[in-house]
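Dear Dr. H.,

I hope your travels went smoothly. While you were away I took the liberty of generating a structure for the chain from your last submission, since the lab meeting agenda had it listed for discussion. I wanted you to have the full record in hand beforehand rather than looking at slides cold. The sequence, exactly as received, is reproduced here:
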Amino acid sequence: MKERDVDPRRLDVRAFAKAGAELSGEWPLAGFDRLRELLVPDADGVAPRAVRWMVTGEEVPVRGGPSQVWLHLLADAGLPMRCQRCLQPLVEPLRVERGFQFVADEAAAESLDNDAEHEVLVLSRELDLHELLVADNGEPEAAPTPGPFSALAALRRGQG
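The corresponding predicted structure, in token form, is as follows:
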């Protein structure tokens, strides 16, 4: 599978993985709404305004069953932000590495997803890599951290 024959916005995941193919490119930061909200608007020229990405496909043989289909995605960018101390523009590096296992249906995805450290998705005929990179991974927000004196207050209530 030749890189020029593959459209990252309409990727045939199974064929890509079966070929053990690799694809890379860049997309402008302007296409990533959540990242764009963090950027300093007047920091032009501080860093490249693009997300560089690379994806590799892998088909893993499974004894007594169908092979597993995987994509491994790596993306990085330099985000122009403002230093909270000196208020000058700076470049904050961002690097994301994620593995995606593709399964036949929602039931299989749900059963694997609870125990997996990687993402489990339902295999479809075409996949938009940009959407995959942009998508929220659905992780619940972390509970707010208690204030520095909450433990002291709890001890005080227990003693009083």
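Two observations you may find useful: The longest strand covers residues 65-82. The helical segments are 13-18, 33-36, 106-113, 129-134, 150-159.

With kind regards,
E. W.
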